[in-house]
């Protein structure tokens, strides 16, 4: 949920060099079956398990909801670990790039929708959060040919707030804790909206810069083509001069011969 696919690691087994990164050879040997990708797959598998546990026995049994909370907490923790491993070892796989953000949004989306279905969480909160996540994902594709929108500190704080609030709603809480979870969720909603607007601003700026750079490159290319077009006819005329003399002389001789015959 950080905005940047984190689960990326490869499993070459090599030890990281100073700075926590591996060499190019190790990166090229990145394997699909590495610890970071496995954690991502575990998080994906936890999504249906979490939903089944949450809705077991009508969805209001405190014991089963505690089990559902445990599954949700494990899923959120794996997101932290696979991201750390991916950054520490600098190993990237295409599976990790695709599966990590899907797993992040799947577990959070499943929690929000399920809680709204049970009537524990207002649908407008679920709608705001899911609309923001979907919108930012589409916006990343909108600007991906120009630049990548980096994950911000606010985005990470938003993810933490969302996970904490959703986890508190999964548990059966009463009294002051029930009031507290409402305000934690409100903080999460505010962070969701504010960081979403910031991502929109970044996307617009990056796209403008990208388009400006493309226009500058196109103008430079047209200028180079124009210079080349101006130089080519001049070179052709100069080169054609020596050959033009014999040709003209042959044409004159042909005309003289024709006149003599007449």
Strand percentage, roughly? Answer: under 5%
Major sheet, described briefly? none
The secondary-structure class comes to mainly alpha
Number of strands: 0
Helix share bin: over 70%
Uncertain segments of ≥5 residues (pLDDT<50)? 1-29, 237-244
Integer average pLDDT: 77
What sequence of helices (H) and strands (E) makes up the elements? Answer: HHHHHHH
Count of helices?
Answer: 7
Described by the principal axes of the CA atoms, the overall outline is elongated
Any idea what the radius of gyration is?
32 Å
How far apart are the first and last residues' alpha carbons, in Å? 97 Å
Overview of this structure, please?
With 262 residues, the chain is an all-alpha fold. The protein has seven helices and no strands. It has helices at residues 24-28, 35-55, 62-89, 94-117, 123-143, 153-170, 176-261. The longest helix is centred in the last third of the chain and has 86 residues, at 176-261. The protein is elongated. The model is unreliable at 1-29 and 237-244 (pLDDT under 50).
Features:
disordered N terminus, single chain, mainly alpha, 77% helix, 262 residues, elongated
């Amino acid at each position: 949920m950080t905005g940047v696919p984190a689960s990326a690691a490869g499993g070459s087994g090599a030890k990281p060099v100073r700075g926590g990164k591996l060499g190019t050879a190790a990166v090229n040997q990145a394997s699909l079956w590495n610890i970071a990708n496995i954690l991502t797959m575990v998080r994906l598998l936890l999504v249906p398990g979490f939903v089944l546990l949450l809705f077991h026995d009508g969805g209001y049994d405190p014991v089963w909801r505690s089990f559902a909370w445990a599954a949700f907490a494990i899923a959120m923790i794996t997101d932290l670990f696979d991201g750390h491993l991916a950054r520490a070892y600098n190993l990237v796989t295409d599976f990790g790039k695709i599966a990590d953000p899907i797993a992040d949004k799947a577990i959070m989306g499943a929690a929000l929708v399920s809680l709204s279905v049970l009537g524990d969480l207002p649908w407008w909160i679920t709608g705001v959060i899911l609309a923001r996540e979907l919108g930012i994902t589409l916006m990343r594709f909108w600007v991906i040919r120009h630049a990548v929108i980096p994950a911000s500190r606010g985005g990470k704080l938003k993810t933490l707030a969302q996970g904490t609030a959703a986890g508190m709603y999964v548990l059966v809480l009463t009294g002051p804790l029930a009031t507290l979870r409402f305000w934690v969720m409100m903080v999460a909603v505010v962070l969701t909206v504010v960081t979403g607007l910031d991502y929109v601003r970044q996307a617009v700026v990056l796209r403008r810069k990208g388009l400006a750079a493309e226009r500058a490159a196109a103008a430079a290319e047209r200028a180079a083509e124009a210079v080349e077009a101006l130089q080519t006819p001049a070179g052709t005329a100069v080169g054609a001069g020596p050959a033009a003399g014999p040709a003209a002389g042959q044409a004159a001789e042909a005309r003289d011969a024709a006149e003599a015959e007449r």
